[in-house]
Specification:
five-stranded parallel beta sheet, 49% helix, globular, binds 2'-deoxycytidine-5'-monophosphate
Amino acid sequence: MKARIAIDGPAGAGKSTVARAVAKRLNLIYLDTGAMYRAVTLAALRNGTDLHDKKALEALTLSLQLDIRTDEKGNNLVFLNGEDVTAAIRDPLINRHVSLVALYPEVRSIMVQKQRELSRRGGVVMDGRDIGTHVMPDAEYKFFLTASLEERAKRRQAELLAAGKTVSYEQVLEEIAARDKIDTEREHSPLRAARDAVIIDTTEMTIEQVVETIIDKVVLV
Ligand code: DC
């Protein structure tokens, strides 16, 4: 089987950019699992679904047609009931609500099932919060990326600005800290490094350095 690579870590640690680059270099399929939780959150907000009503969220999640495709640059494109929502799921409003939606095991198990289907044949790089611990516990390679809260907020703010969204540094820092707290303290599949994950603190590293560190450790079979 072709290698499976799990990349977990908190918001803003550089997971998506690194995972996409690693997949491209090694000719593997990239899956951004956070995008899946974001798409459900977008659908719930649009539908006016009560984010505290787990039964309603479960029914909504089951009813959605969620497709993740890859463009020629290796980016994930996210389609919700046929509509391209790739940009819409990056809105600050989604950032503020996505961790709440990701709390529910009813929602998580539907997402995890889709993620495992995709990993079955191997040859994937998946990034998220619970990939090494829960989605692909038997992945050949596991990495956990961290960075200081301040550095992660700086990166996230730059990302939002590049997408034309003006938000203050303080606002981003607060939002990321709140998300970290919910993601790490939740009961089901909380954010944590798998026991056999390689932990990389990216605070002082460039994206290229992180990518090289990972590639150096991966021996493709
Ligand atoms: O990686 P991201 O910022 O796009 O993730 C958005 C949210 O989705 C994150 O705050 C928690 C949730 N998530 C999760 O619970 N499990 C995953 N595997 C990926 C994301």
